[in-house]
Design goal:
The protein is built from eight helices and 38 strands. By secondary structure, the chain is α/β, with parallel strands linked by helices. The longest helix is centred in the C-terminal third of the chain and has 28 residues.
């Protein structure tokens, strides 16, 4: 029986051999173990559908090989298979598990459907095209090394995708990709650009923890449910303009804020400044709750000052972003203090009288006279309330002005 195929005719004869000969190599009808293909093979013209398991273990292809539009109904293995020239799997379908072990040349998987478990090699000396693909199961490419360009654009990933600790020496093109679960580039190293523009990580977490970006990274208009950039190193720039991020930690908010500031985008930078401070506020609240629960009073007191400051900043202008919050804070707090002040001097003025509002307008001016209301006797209590009112009104006015000046910051 053939061990070396020199022509398409010889390969067809081998595939159509009698069933009695299937056991010759022991792997069934499509047993190509230790076989050598000396001609350019186009399996679409020879066997468009493989209904039984296919074994290419230790096979050698000396010319170009095409598996385009081929359907594999059962398990396929390419263990220790050697491709001397380029190989194309364009629009092929793998319905059961498939195992790839090494590609020494360019490989094209454009439009392939991987409907079961897929095992990929860890080293790619040449480019690999995984664009327009569909992966139904988990894709694990962790600790891989890509020497040339990697294309993932327009692909759909139903389950988790991991490139953890992988090294990308050339560009990664992953625009318009859809990830239904988690996407991990944790501890990865991008030595060239990565483009994840117009992509969707709908339900899972996008993990860039500890990732090294040596060049620009583009996330324009990408939707993230959760993203983590903590401990990442950004040597050039990361671009998030138009992206949507539902949730991220404080450090990630800080990194994105600084990237927008570096790009002179003050508006987006302010938004992430607000998110950064909100995250810190939530962290302190949770930490204080745990300290109180565990009776760690010293730690509780240490955080108390920051909690007060953050609370006041949030209520008075939304960490510098909400001018209307400053106005609400100013008039709400000063109106309450003003009513207490009127009580302290034994003066009752109905709200519907103009006199009430005339004195209130004077009261909220921090530099008003102590005797701005004629004919009343001031007490020690009224002086204290007046001083407190001046401080609160000055603070409210300052915070409102700061919020109005938000686009002049950073």
């Amino acid at each position: 029986m053939f061990k070396t195929f020199k022509s398409e005719e010889e390969l067809i004869i081998y595939i159509n051999r009698p069933e009695d000969d299937y056991s010759y190599y022991g792997n069934g009808k499509f047993d190509f173990e230790d076989c050598t293909f000396e001609f350019e093979v186009d399996f679409q013209l020879i066997q468009k559908k493989f209904n039984d398991p296919v074994v290419f273990k230790d096979a050698r292809f000396e010319k170009k090989v095409y598996f385009e539009n081929v359907i594999f109904e059962s398990k396929v293995t390419f263990e220790k298979c050697y491709f001397q020239k380029s190989v194309s799997f364009k629009k092929a379908t793998f319905k059961e598990s498939v195992e790839f072990y090494y590609f020494s040349t360019n490989v094209d998987f454009e439009g392939v459907k991987f409907l079961s478990t897929t095992t990929f090699p860890k080293y790619y000396p040449n480019s690999i095209n995984l664009s327009h693909c569909r992966f139904e199961e988990t894709l694990d490419l962790s600790s891989s090394r890509f020497e040339k360009e990697l294309n993932l654009n327009d692909s759909v990933f139903i389950k988790n995708v991991s490139f953890q600790s992988s090294i990308f020496n050339k560009k990664v093109n992953a625009w318009n990709t859809i990830y239904k679960k988690n996407l991990s580039f944790r501890w990865a190293n991008f030595r060239e650009k990565i483009n994840l523009t117009d992509s969707y990580v709908k339900k899972g977490k996008t993990d860039f923890f500890g990732t090294n970006f040596e060049n620009n990274a583009y996330f324009y208009n990408t939707e993230f449910k959760i993203i983590d950039l903590k401990n990442s190193v950004i040597e050039e720039g990361v671009y998030f303009l138009g992206s949507t991020i539902q949730k991220c930690n404080r450090e990630t908010n800080r990194i994105i804020k600084n990237q927008f500031a570096k790009q002179n985008n003050r508006i987006e930078s302010l938004k992430f400044h607000h998110r950064e401070m909100s995250s810190y506020f939530q962290e302190l609240l949770y930490e204080s709750f745990l300290n109180l629960k565990n009776f760690k009073l010293w730690k509780l007191l240490k955080n108390f000052g920051d909690l007060i400051i953050l609370s006041l900043n949030f209520l008075s202008n939304g960490f510098g972003l909400w001018w209307f919050a400053g106005i609400i804070f100013l008039f709400t707090t000063t109106s309450v203090i003003y009513d207490y002040y009127l009580v302290s001097i034994n003066l009752k003025i109905p709200y519907d009288q103009l006199e009430y509002w005339k004195y209130y307008v004077q009261f909220i001016v921090p530099t008003h006279k102590f005797d701005f209301i004629d004919g009343v006797i001031l007490t020690d209590k009224s002086y204290i309330i007046d001083y407190f009112g001046r401080v609160i009104s000055a603070f409210g006015i300052y915070q409102t002005v700061q919020a109005f000046r938000k686009f002049g910051k950073i």
